[in-house]
Structure formats: structure tokens, C-alpha cells
Sequence to fold (147 residues):
Amino acid sequence: MKVTSLIRAIPFALIVIGLTACAGSKQQDSSPDDVMKEIRYEVNAIVAEPARAKQVLVLAEELNQIFISDAQQSKIDKLKHHELNTNFNTTEASFKAFLNELNIRARNQQIRVLRIRDEIKNLLAPEEWKKLNSVRDDFVNENAQWL
Fold:
């Protein structure tokens, strides 16, 4: 993947990190740490003011931690789902409580991710934002194995 392609895909790269971590048995080309290294490089390359670049990177790292945590929780949730689903004595109420917990957690994560996205957007000039987003489709297509 070209480094310049990653520049414009930073906001979506972090989402892909989360998907990568959740992919489990699929091979991945880059780890979340590798992607974060690229993101650091690219943000510093396109955001002219070091103070703003630093703020963007703090938020990007926060997103990265959300996705890493979510991937870990997903493994626990899969085990719990399997446990509930295979136990003949699991009640409907227990299963619904588990699913409700998943939904609440997912909604809270969506709120956090959107808040961070908006904070990043507010730190960037329109042209910087455009650069970060202009190759989103290329990035996703080049990394379809992560999905």
C-alpha cells in the first residue's frame, strides 16, 4: 500500500483496525501498531501546526484503544454467546439480557467514536480533512482481507 494512500484514509483506518482485530483467523498485513505508526507519520506530514497534529494523534490513539478494547471484548462476548446458546437450560430472559448488554455497549461505542471523529474534524482545515478522506474507498479495497 502506498504511504500517500494512507494519508487520506486515517479516519477510516482506525475503523479497519477494529475490524482487523475482530477478524480472528484471517491473516492481516499490518498490526494496529503498524497502522498507528503510519497514521502518526501522515498526520505530521499534512497537518502544518505541530500542536494540532499532536491533538489529532491523541484522538487517533484514543480511537485505536477503543477498537483494541472492543476486539478483546468481542472474544469474550463470542464465548459467552456460545455458552448461552449451547446450554439447554439458558432462559430467554438470560439470552435477552446478554443481547441487550451487547446493544448498549455497541451504542455507547458508536457515540464515543462519533464524538472523536467530530473532534478530529474540528481540528483540521477543510483541505486537510479532504486529504485524510479522499482515498477511503481505495484503502478499504486494498485491505478487503481485513473486512
